[in-house]
Amino acid sequence: MGDQEFRAIFNLLPVPDFEATAFTIPPRLQGATVALVTTAGLHLPEDAGWARRDQSFRILPSGRRDLRLGHSSSNFDQSGLLMDLNVVYPADRLQEMQAEGAIGAVAPRHLSFMGSQDETMSTIRLDTGPAAAKLLLDDGVEVVLLTPI
Questions:
Q1: How far apart are CA 30 and CA 105, in angstroms?
Q2: Helix (H, G, I), strand (E, B) or coil at 140
Q3: Per-residue confidence in pLDDT tens, the chain, 149 aa
Q4: DSSP letters along 84-113, please?
Q5: Is residue 6 within 8 Å of residue 73, measured between CB atoms?
Q6: Is residue 5 part of a domain?
């Protein structure tokens, strides 16, 4: 499927309308615990990959770099990822920022979802998204760096 076909499909998807926008005043980065959340479809070798329309998430322990790409779209350009995982999962940059004192701490766990969802994403909005947020809050995460793919 080409780019134009994908655009046509995704332009037809409904977008939820929220009455209020959630907002939280962020803490100073120098003292904040930071986690990564990516939509690159990364997972550990021992974890199951994703099936089409799977709106679950995978936990990526901090420090693990033996991640697998679960993204199966032929339209996903993997060249940057193959050269440097930090393109989609900048865990090394977070470690450097912590060492420099730019952030307080790197979270013990990060999360990965599968991008390019062609459904309403109601499962992420109502189920797996809140579950992911609770997991990060339980880890003391105050700031999330989102790498949308």
A1: 9
A2: coil
A3: 677 887 787 787 777 778 888 888 889 999 999 999 998 889 999 998 788 788 889 999 998 888 988 866 667 777 777 789 998 899 999 999 999 999 999 999 999 998 777 666 778 888 889 999 999 999 999 999 999 87
A4: -GGGT--HHHHHHHHHHTSSSEE-SEEEEE
A5: no
A6: no
Report how far apart the first and last C-alpha atoms of the chain are (Å, whole number): 18
Model's pTM, two decimal places?
A: 0.83
Considering its fold, how many domains does the chain have in total? Answer: 1
d(CA 136, CA 143) in angstroms, rounded, equals: 9
Hey, what amino acid is at 25? Answer: I
116: closest CA among 78, 75, 87, 67? Answer: 75
Domain ranges, residue 95: 32-147
Asked if residue 12 belongs to a domain, the reply is: no
Cβ-based burial of 112 (10 A; exposed 0-12, middle 13-18, buried ≥19):
buried
Q: How far is CA 37 from the centre of its chain?
A: 3
**Domain assignment of residue 20, yes or no:** no
- The reply to whether 102 falls in a domain is yes
